[in-house]
Amino acid sequence: MILYSYFRSSAAYRVRIALNIKEIDYTIKPIHLLTDGGQHHLPDFHSLNPLELVPVLIHNGITISQSLAIIDYLEAIHPSPALYPSGLTDKIACQELALSIACDVHPINNLRVANFLKERHQLSPSQIKDWNLHWISIGFQSLEERLYHHNGSSTCTGFCFGNEPSVADLCLIPQIYNALRHDLDLSVYPRLNDIYQHCISLAPFKHASPECQADFPT
Ligand SMILES: N[C@@H](CCC(=O)N[C@@H](CS)C(=O)NCC(=O)O)C(=O)O
After folding, report:
1. Separation between Cα atoms, residue 210 and residue 217, nearest integer Å
2. Fold for the domain defined by 88-205
3. Domain covering 2-81: architecture
4. Per-residue pLDDT band at 203 (split at 50, 70, 90)
5. Pairing mode, if any, of strands 2-5 and 56-59?
6. Which amino acids bring their CB within 6 angstroms of ligand 1?
7. CA–CA separation, 57 vs 86, rounded Å?
8. Exposed (0-12), middle (13-18) or buried (19+): which is 37, by Cβ within 10 Å?
9. Tens digit of each residue's pLDDT (9 = 90 or more) over 61-119
């Protein structure tokens, strides 16, 4: 199993956590999003994913892009431990939260969006930071409310839903990591903060973190 990954990519980070939780052996092929004008734009990588985004997984002759499709593939070939809660209500809430991050929050903070704002519209680094924090804050406020709504005032288990990590946590933790790079004050979102502190203490999350990747700059 080969994972094309970039240490800081939050979409690749989601998949790395899934692989670690399921204890699947994999080899990382690093794709640097900044050097060589972005290695994801080179022809070899383009032929794997014409959208020129990481991650891409290759297994048994199958090439898959889209982190959530990759995670569903892993779930199908390696169902245990499951990455979705078992009850229908929790499962749908988990998908809802994961999709909120993957479809509504993450894409507008992507590198190519920042590059476009900088190159086409001459936004400064501080304006781009403001853009990112604006959309992340709106997203995080909704996630915080969604989690209180779903779980009530019960004590936080350290995960979004139930007592085990789910796809919701796989999307949330990398998104928070990304937000902290933009100096977001996470204490404003106590439930998200509790989940983050708990998850990053666990080995599958820790080993998937950008700092633990071979391509992390030394
Ligand atoms: N929806 C995709 C998003 C993939 C994605 O946006 N990857 C980012 C890194 S997190 C990327 O390759 N960005 C390169 C760019 O924006 O130029 C997924 O979930 O896999």
Report:
1. 10
2. Glutathione S-transferase Yfyf (Class Pi); Chain A, domain 2 (1.20.1050)
3. 3-Layer(aba) Sandwich (3.40)
4. very high
5. antiparallel
6. 9-11, 33, 38, 40, 53-55, 66-68, 102, 110-112
7. 26
8. exposed
9. 999 999 999 999 999 999 999 999 999 999 999 999 999 999 999 999 999 999 999 99
Q: Residue 2: which of 38, 44, 50, 51 has the closest Cα?
A: 44
- Closest approach atom of ligand 1 to CA 10: 10
Residue to mutate, 53, 57, 66, ligand 1, most ligand atoms under 8 Å from C-beta: 53
> How far away, in angstroms, is 32 Cα from ligand 1 center?
12
Q: Alpha-carbon distance 181 to 174, whole Å?
A: 11
For the chain, give the mean pLDDT.
97
Please check the confidence at residue 32 and state whether its pLDDT lies above 90.
yes
